[in-house]
Design goal:
Shape: elongated
Number of strands: 24
Largest sheet: 6 strands, mixed
Strand content: 5-15%
Distance between the termini: 136 Å
Oligomer: single chain
Number of helices: 41
């Protein structure tokens, strides 16, 4: 008798015993069968007859318990062999109904059998085992069967967590349906299994919300609150099928909610999450649930802003899911389907003339399922395939042949996997300082997702991308050791060069500031500072005396003294003059320190960079070469190189009418023989300066660092009062001043939204920032001057308050209330308030000598009353900010703290120009703005109808913009170019434009305004008078009274 026949005989005898076994000896016989079946079966054979008998016994109500006991024993942990496993799993569909049998013993044994199989099978066979369970769960009506299946699924999560995670899109709907079952036992079991299955969701962004997500499935009324919770979540982790499977039920319901705010937040979550999907195949199963909801909402939502957000989510979903025209869903990859891999296997065996007997069909299906799972997990290495596929292939193939065939099978199956793009990296030579993969977010915005950063010693990298891409955020995250995988400062000294030095160090001397950083002895520090160009006098000066450019050099010197391996330079040329920029270029090129540079100065990057790291999507892509070489490879980045190539458009509001200014060339600001000196300094910062500005002025203020450019502008705008000389500003002239450190405007409002900041700044009708200027503050000298005595109606009076203004000849006169003087010059002198009926009007020329600041305050209030400002409504603010490149989403829904440097500058520009200024003064406007924004700003300033004054070191920015140059050096200002002294008042006349549309006061109240009647000539007046007399005479004849509307004529 052959070995095979012997095995069959033994099994037949054992099954005969099992068939007649009782509850007492059933377990022992099942153990014997398990031991023999899992150990002594002849290779290349299977006990086909035994499994047929076992299947028949499971279908027999009387013998089912014995058959189940045998399966429990066969499938015990660590016993189940590859030659038996496929046949045991094939019986699952017969076992599941037995868990709902009327016989309690059979129920329990069926439950045990399912649990035993779930524990013992190869985790990669989940692809064939789990669908059997979910199909049975959704089709059966027996609650005991459902509970048993749910228990088996929970076990699978422990034994095959990774594999169950990939099956979550099919599993979640089945579990959700079970959670709505009318039987409490099923509800409880389904909720427990759902909770267990969510352990496969390895996403830290939503881990804490999983209980709420599960509760939403059971109780749909909780959807609104859960969407609110998730709406404020920052998503940074990669989004997998498991993550989407638990989120999509909530999102699809959120899209269907009646409340527009919930629909909007659901769209925001979809937009944010889909950006983190690596493979279109991940999102493909969910397109049918999300895309129709987004499309319907975009078509029906009335709120324009919510529709815009919905459209953004729709575009992201279409892009990530590779959705075709007319929203045709892409073909889902079937590379891992059992049918596909089985086809590859069968075709391969056919090609090498290997016939597989029909009895091995369950094994072939099992091999195909395991191969499909390996494809789904993108596991393609040879050893893993041998480990998991070979044991089953050798059931009907010789081991030597099986290895060759399985490897060929692996290669053919892997060819079906969709291929992603490949990116070139820099050459391998050189010492790696960093080679890491990480994700990055700021606030609720995803900046980078699973991107690689590789840095080598001594290389210089330029970091490029639009405003808001996250360049400065990445630099700060590296400096603060918040980037996963980036070496610590102990391993690699990384220094962020911070040129905006904290104000708390303002009075600290330069040398003491550096010494406090524990970077060496004072002698070493002084030597390094001298090397960096500091003079002996500057080293001992307080930091507050340094200009912005010298502060930058100080920060760089401090970083070098720390023996940095990597320098992080964020806009290093900000505030540097051309001489110091050239020095910095030479230093970085020769120091041998690795540097990452963020700069919008194209010439600087061209002279420095060896590589450009560019933000593309949510990845960093590296290009070899400087900026010009990068632009040649990536033409869409042309605006990084040429300001004129920017497609972005900015626009400034048209300035209001100025009384008495008939031409654009007439001076609206005059400075005469002005000198300014800071208290405690030895010499004036600027001396004997005279100039004037008009609506046509286009002025560039140039000069080296520390020459006094910003001081000059501060005097012009009223931030500082001149020590000597006069500053005249037209009574109604509004000046928008953007400081050198633009963030100073908003640093105490970081937790407001941009819309809230603008409302705060202008809610009283005045610009709150201008109220703090030196030309608005009453000092001791002003109080002394305000004691001037006016002789009015033969009584001595002092002005108590100025109330109003009216036109008087070619100027104005002001209504004043007074204090009446008694016993003047005597000890009993006193000043008594007079009644309002004693108020009188004083001409501006007399009043401004002693009460200039009070006059200026009334001028501002009168300008406000004219209705020249807009309503502080969300829509109006969003519209104004959009003119300067800020999206409505950022303006109304994002805190200022979360904006990038460039976005903050745009906000400051928008706030500064809210009151429609006549003169825009920009101190270093190129700081922080990206190339696109700089190009747009340059074009907007050129088109602006008012005057423009710019302090900048960027000749590129001003070359086609300014017609006049103020060169400041050593406290002296030398003007040149068009329209500085001659020609004032010449040019075409301005016509007063009627205000278009409705007018509002500062609080948003509509102002009723009557149209002015045209002035009639003397002839027209006589004609109208004759007509009126004729009508009156006719009316009198009829016995009627005639009333004319033209009586005033």
């Amino acid at each position: 008798m052959s070995d095979s026949a012997q095995s069959i005989k033994v099994l037949s005898e054992l099954f005969g015993k099992l068939a007649v076994a009782t509850a007492d000896n059933r377990s022992d016989i099942a153990t014997e069968i398990s031991t023999f079946l899992n150990g002594n079966i002849v290779e290349h054979d299977v006990p086909e007859e035994f499994f047929k008998q076992l299947e028949a016994s499971l279908k027999d109500k009387k013998a089912a318990a014995n058959g189940l006991a045998a399966i429990v024993s066969i499938a015990s942990e660590n016993k189940l062999t590859p030659s038996v496993e496929p046949f045991v799993v094939a019986l699952t569909s017969i076992i599941t109904p037995l868990a709902g049998a009327k016989d309690k013993e059979t129920q329990e044994l069926a439950k045990e059998a399912l649990a035993a199989i779930a524990k013992s099978i190869d985790p990669l066979s989940v692809k064939v085992f789990l669908p059997i369970l979910t199909t049975a769960l959704t089709s059966t009506s027996k609650w005991q069967e459902k509970v048993a299946i749910l228990a088996a699924i929970s076990i699978l999560v422990d034994t095959a967590k990774t594999q169950v995670a990939l099956r979550m899109p099919e599993l979640i709907p089945a579990l959700s349906e079970a959670m709505w079952d009318t039987k409490k036992d099923v509800k409880v079991a389904a909720t427990e299994t759902m909770t267990k299955s969510t352990e496969t969701v390895e996403n830290k962004d939503i881990e804490k919300f999983i209980p709420q997500l599960i509760a939403c499935i059971a109780t749909p009324t909780l959807v609104t609150e859960t969407v609110h919770l998730l709406g404020a979540t920052t998503f940074v982790a990669e989004v997998t099928p498991a993550t989407l499977s638990i989120m999509v039920p909530l999102l699809s319901r959120g899209l269907a909610e009646r409340d527009t705010a919930i629909k909007r937040k659901a769209a925001v979550i979809i937009d944010n999450m889909c950006k983190l999907v690596e493979d279109p195949q991940v999102v493909a199963p969910f397109l049918g649930e999300l895309l129709p909801g987004l499309k319907a909402n975009f078509a029906t939502i009335a709120d324009p802003e919510a529709r815009e957000v919905t459209l953004r989510g729709l575009k992201t979903l279409r892009r990530v899911g590779n959705v075709g025209e007319n929203d045709v869903f892409p073909e889902v990859s079937h590379a891992g389907d059992i049918v596909t891999t089985k086809g590859v296997w069968v075709e391969l065996l056919k090609a090498i003339n290997v016939d597989v007997a029909p009895r091995f069909e369950p094994v072939v299906t099992y091999i195909s399922a395991i191969a499909g799972e390996l494809i789904d997990e993108r596991i393609i290495d040879q050893q893993t395939w041998f480990t998991h596929v070979l044991p089953y292939a050798t059931i009907f193939l010789k081991e030597k042949n099986a290895k060759e065939i399985v490897d060929d099978f692996r290669k053919r199956a892997v060819d079906n996997i969709p291929q992603g793009p490949n990116f070139d990296d820099e050459e391998e030579e050189g010492e790696d300082l960093c080679n890491c993969e990480f994700s990055l977010a700021y606030g609720a915005k995803i900046l980078l997702n699973k991107t690689q950063l590789r840095l080598k010693r001594g290389r210089r990298y330029g970091l490029c991308g639009p405003n808001g891409a996250g360049k400065s955020t990445l630099m700060r995250a590296i400096a603060n050791e918040q980037v996963d995988g980036f070496p610590t400062k102990e391993e690699c000294m990384t220094v962020y060069v911070e040129h905006d030095i904290d104000g708390t160090h303002a009075e600290t001397s330069v040398v003491d500031y550096v010494f406090a950083g524990d970077v060496g002895t004072k002698e070493e520090i002084i030597a390094k500072l001298l090397e960096f160009g500091f003079s002996d006098e500057m080293i001992t000066q307080p930091i507050t005396a340094l200009s912005g450019g010298w502060k930058m050099k100080l920060a760089l010197a401090r970083a070098v003294l720390k023996n940095a391996d990597i320098l992080l330079l964020d806009e290093p040329t900000n505030h540097l003059d051309t001489v110091n920029v050239a020095w910095l270029v030479n230093y970085l090129n020769t120091c041998g320190i690795t540097s990452i540079i963020v700069s919008h100065d194209s010439g600087f990057l061209d002279r420095i960079c060896q590589y450009i790291i560019h933000y593309e999507g949510l990845k960093l892509k590296k290009y070899k070469g400087n900026l010009s070489e990068f632009v040649a490879k990536c033409p869409t980045a042309q605006s990084y190189y040429e300001l004129g190539a920017s497609d972005l458009e900015f626009q400034f509001p048209e300035p209001g009418f100025l009384e008495g200014v008939k031409t654009k060339q007439k001076a609206i600001v005059k400075v005469s023989n002005m000198t300014f000196q800071y208290p405690g300094t030895t010499k004036p910062q600027i001396s004997n300066v005279s100039f004037q500005c008009s609506l046509s002025s286009r002025i560039a203020v140039i000069g080296p660092n520390g020459a006094g450019k910003s001081t000059l502008i501060n005097v012009l705008t009223g931030e500082l009062l001149p020590t000597e000389g006069e500053v005249y500003t037209h009574e109604n002239c509004r000046i928008a001043y953007i400081k050198q450190h633009a963030f100073a405007h908003i640093e105490s409002h970081l937790d407001k939204t941009p819309s809230e900041y603008i409302q705060w700044r202008f809610q009283t009708g005045e610009d709150r920032e201008t109220m703090d200027r030196a030309n608005r503050q009453i000092n001791e000298d002003d109080e002394a001057g305000m004691k001037k005595i006016f002789e009015i109606e033969n009584t001595p009076r002092r002005v108590q308050e100025i109330h109003a203004r009216r036109k008087f000849k070619n100027s104005y006169e002001y209504e004043c209330s007074f204090l009446l003087g008694e016993n003047i010059g005597m000890k009993s002198e006193r000043w008594v308030p007079m009644s309002s009926v004693e108020n009188a009007w004083i001409p501006r020329s007399e009043l401004v000598e002693s009460h200039a600041k009070l006059v200026a305050e009334v001028d501002m209030k009168e300008a406000l009353a004219s209705g020249q400002f807009r309503a502080l409504t969300r829509k109006e603010i969003e519209s104004h900010c959009a003119m300067l490149g800020l999206e409505a989403e950022l303006v109304s829904h994002s805190r200022i703290r979360g904006l990038s440097g460039g976005q903050k500058v745009k906000l400051v520009l928008a706030a500064g120009t809210w009151q429609r200024p006549h003169l825009i003064v920009l101190d270093e406007p190129t700081n922080y703005l990206d190339r696109d924004s700089l190009g747009a700003l340059s074009k907007a300033l050129k088109a602006f109808e008012g005057g423009v004054i710019i302090i900048t070191h960027s000749a590129e920015f001003t070359k086609d913009l300014t017609e006049e140059v103020w060169a400041v050096q050593n406290g002296q200002m030398v003007p040149s170019g068009h329209n500085w002294v001659t020609g004032q008042g010449s040019g075409p006349r301005l016509s007063k434009k009627e205000e278009e549309g409705d007018k509002f006061d500062a609080m948003g109240n509509k102002i009723a305004s009557a149209e002015k009647k045209a002035k009639l000539s003397a002839a027209d007046i006589r004609k109208k008078k004759k007509e009126r007399m004729a009508k009156r005479k006719a009316a009198k004849a009829r016995g009627e009274e005639y009333v004319s509307s033209d009586e005033a004529l």
